[in-house]
Amino acid sequence: MAKTNPGRFFEDYQLGQTIEHAVPRTVSGGERALYHALYPARHALYSSDAFAQASGLPGSPIDDLAAFHVIFGKTVPDVSLNAVANLGYAEGRWHLPVYAGDTLRSTSEVIGLKQNSNGKTGVVYVRTRGLNQRDETVMDYVRWVMVRKRDIDAPAPETVVPTLSKSIAASDLVIPQGLTFADYNFTLAGEPHRLSDYTIGEQIDHVDGVTIEEAEHMIATRLWQNTAKVHFDATFRPDGQRLIYGGHVISMARALSFNGLANAQMIVGLNAGAHANPCFSGDTVKAWSEVLDIAETSAPGVGAIRLRLVATKGGAPFVLRGEDGKYDPNVLLDLDYWALMPL
Amino acid sequence: MAKTNPGRFFEDYQLGQTIEHAVPRTVSGGERALYHALYPARHALYSSDAFAQASGLPGSPIDDLAAFHVIFGKTVPDVSLNAVANLGYAEGRWHLPVYAGDTLRSTSEVIGLKQNSNGKTGVVYVRTRGLNQRDETVMDYVRWVMVRKRDIDAPAPETVVPTLSKSIAASDLVIPQGLTFADYNFTLAGEPHRLSDYTIGEQIDHVDGVTIEEAEHMIATRLWQNTAKVHFDATFRPDGQRLIYGGHVISMARALSFNGLANAQMIVGLNAGAHANPCFSGDTVKAWSEVLDIAETSAPGVGAIRLRLVATKGGAPFVLRGEDGKYDPNVLLDLDYWALMPL
Amino acid sequence: MAKTNPGRFFEDYQLGQTIEHAVPRTVSGGERALYHALYPARHALYSSDAFAQASGLPGSPIDDLAAFHVIFGKTVPDVSLNAVANLGYAEGRWHLPVYAGDTLRSTSEVIGLKQNSNGKTGVVYVRTRGLNQRDETVMDYVRWVMVRKRDIDAPAPETVVPTLSKSIAASDLVIPQGLTFADYNFTLAGEPHRLSDYTIGEQIDHVDGVTIEEAEHMIATRLWQNTAKVHFDATFRPDGQRLIYGGHVISMARALSFNGLANAQMIVGLNAGAHANPCFSGDTVKAWSEVLDIAETSAPGVGAIRLRLVATKGGAPFVLRGEDGKYDPNVLLDLDYWALMPL
Q: Which CDD domains match (chains A, B, C) (predicted)?
C-alpha cells in the first residue's frame, strides 16, 4: 500500500462530501511575531494588546490573514495538491478573532463540480470552515480550483455550479463581540483618516515596496503548513523557479496598505480574489487600493469599508486590466474585502 | 589573557572529565513557531495542544529534534569548535518532552579517547546529557568527533573506545508518562497507516523536496545557539561556501518524512547517524525511509517503529551506497531512529 | 486629501514639539526567539529564565537592543522618513527591562534644530522616550538626523544645538531593581572573565563573522516595524541595493562580542554611535571591542564596563580611522556603550 498522499483528483470529489482536513494547529505569540517579521504589518489592533483592549477585545488577536492562512494551509493536501489553478474566492467571513493559545482545524464541503470541456480537468467548489478548539467557526469561505483528472475516461459528474454572492452584504458581516471604536486613538493607530474621510471610487497608492526573497516566502508558507511542492522545490518547475504562495502576496499587499489605510483595522469579509499573475523571488511587490463601498455597523463607532486591494510587481499604480479585459501583466493580485474602520 | 574561546584541542580532553556547557536556554512558543516556519513539520502531536492532550500529554511539546538541537548547540564551543569531522551518534534517548517555559542546559562526559595514527588528530567520545530547570534529564546521547591536536608532540592518551550499542533495545526506550494512542485520531493526524501497516524492510519515498537557502539554515542554526563559524561566515572556507549544520538536514528530512510517516509521532531513540556528504545552499533536499524494526511498548495503543531516514540532494530514492561501500555522493544523511506510532 | 504619510520635512519640526509615535507593540516569546534566530546572541541573562532569576530578575528580559529597536522603529515614520543621514546618538539609558507581555510605545521631543549652510537640509535633534503599558519610561536616548527641506525657501529656524554629554557618568546609569551578580555562575555564562580581568585600553577581537543575507535583515527590520523603503525595496536606490538598517549591524556586532565579552550582560547606557559606512547583503560582519572605562555600581557584585564596539566588513581588527581621521572604509559601526558585568 502506497503510504504517501497523491492528493485527490477531480473524480475523487463528490457533491456534498465533507473533508476533515488534517493537522490541527495551536498558535502562539510565536506565530504573531513571525507574521510581523515577514510582513510590514503595523495595524495597531494586531500589534498592541493595550490598543486591542481599548477597542473592547481581550487582547491583540492573531492577524486575520494569518488565521486565514492557517485554515487554508490545511486544505492544500486535500484540495489543491493536483490543482492546475486556484480560480477564485467568495463569501469569506471572519466569525471570531483568533488568540494565542487557540487551536485551529479546517473542514471543507464540496458544493460544486463542473468537468471542463477538454475532459482532462474539472472545477471543484468547496466551502471551507475553520474551527477552533471549542468547535466554534472562526472563518469560512468558498474557493474553487481547477483539478486534474486521474483517469481521463472517468465519467463526468453532474454539473453543479453554486450561486455565490458577488459581495457580502454589509449587514451580513460578523462584528467581533464587544468591539468598539468609540475611544479610538488615531495618533497611536498612525493616521487621522476615519471612514468619512474616504469616498467610494477613491484610489490610494500605498507607495512602499518590498522585494521578495525565497527564504521569506518559504518561511511564511511553511508556517501555515502549506507544503505544496511548487513553493519549495526549485527542481519542480521546468524553469527552476519556486512559485510564491498567493497568500504571501495577499499578506504583503495588505501590510503595505497600512500606508493610507492604517485604520482599516480588522478584515471581516472576503468578497472575491484573483491571483492575476504568478509572483517569483526578486519581484518588488507594491500595492494600491480602491474604495468600493462604505457602510455602518451595529458596533459603537465601527464602520465598514469595502476595498479592492491590488498587488503589482511593477508599472504604474491604478492599472488593473488591459484593453483586452485581461489583467495587466504587472498585476499579481486583485482582492475584494471588507474591513472595519472607525466612523 | 586572551578573552575569546579558542575551543578545546585533542590533548585538552581527559577520560572521565565532565564539561558543563554554557548558556542555558528557556524555550517558548517562539521556538515552536520558528521550528514550523523553518521545516515543513506537520506531525500533529507537535502542532496541536488539543491533539497532544488527547494523547495524554499536558500540551504540545517542542519538537524532539528542536530539543536535541538546543542541547547539541551548547556542546559546540566545548566539543566541536576544532573538530575536523562529526563522526557518529549512538545511544540517544529522549527521556522527557520539553514544553514552552522549560530551560535547557547540557553537560558532557568524556567516555573515550583515541589518537589517530597520523598523530595530528584524535577521536573524542562524549556522552551528552540535556537537563531541564528541575535537573531532570531530558535526553542523552553519545557523539564522537575527530579533533585537532594543538601540539603535535603532545603525548597520546591511553586509547579507550567505549562499547556502544548498535541500536537501543525497544524495551529501553522511555515512553513519556501518560502517553496513550488509544483514542488516536488518524484523520486529524493526516494518514491512516498504523504500525501494523508497515513491514520491516519497507521503503518509503517521501516525494517532497525543499531547496535550501542561506538565510534559513543560518536562522535555524542560530536559534539553537550553535555558532560554529563554518555555518555563518562565507569567508571562512576557501570555496566561499557556508557548510550547513547537519542538524538542519536532520530536521528537514524528518519533516519531509511526514508524507508517508505522519503517524511516526514522537522520536524517542537515536541509534546512529552519519552526515554522509556536506549540504550547501541551493541543494534540494529530499528524503526516503526504510523500516528497520517494529516493537510494542507498555503504553496504551503505542508501538515503536525503527526507521532509517536518508536525506539526499538528488538522484533516485533508495540509493544509499555505491559498489565500493561508500555513501552515494547524493546522500546527505543516514539516520537510524526510533519513533512512537499508534498500533 | 492624500492618505499616505509623506514624512516630516525640516521645516515641519519646532523646538519643544512632542511627537507621539504610532503603533504600540506588545512583545512576546516570539520576539525573543526571533532575536536569537537572527543574531548569534548568547548572553545567558537573555537566554535563560533560570539564569535571570538567579540574578534577581523575575525572568529573562527581551534583549536590551530589541527593546531599543522597537522603540526606535516607531520613530522612523515621523523622524527619519526624509532623513539624508542618521548622524548620531547620545545620552541613551535603559531604565527598565522589558518582559514578554509588555507593550511599548515611543514619544520624541524636538530638542535642537540647525539648518545647514546649503539651505537644503537641516539637522533635527530629538530625545526619544520608550514607554511601557504602565507609562513607565523603559529607555530614552537622543538622536540627530539630517532631514531634507520640502521648500528650500522656507525660513531657517533659530539654531539651537543641545549640549549633550560625551558619555553618561557611571553614577547616572540605572541598575535594574533587584539585580545581583553575587551568585553569578561564570560556567553557565560561558566565560570566566570578570570586570577585574579587563583593563582600560584593552582591545578584543571577537573572531567570529556572519555573512549578511537580504532575507535576514528584512525580517529583523520588519520585526521592529521599521518600514523605511530603503531597507526593503530593491528598486528604490539607483544601485539596486537594499541598505541594511544600522540597528541590524548593532545587534549583529553586539551578539558577536559574546566571544570575549560573555559577561557584559546588560546594556544600560548608549554614549555615542556612528554608522560609519553602509552595510549591504553579502558583507561579512565581524566585530572588535575596546575597553573605555570601568566602574562600580550600587548593586551587589555588579560592575559597569564602558566599551567601544566596532563592526567591520573586512580588513584587520582594531583599525578604526585612516590618517585623514575618517573612518576606515571597512568600518560599519562605532558604538560606545555601558554594560553591566560581574565584579
A: FkbR2
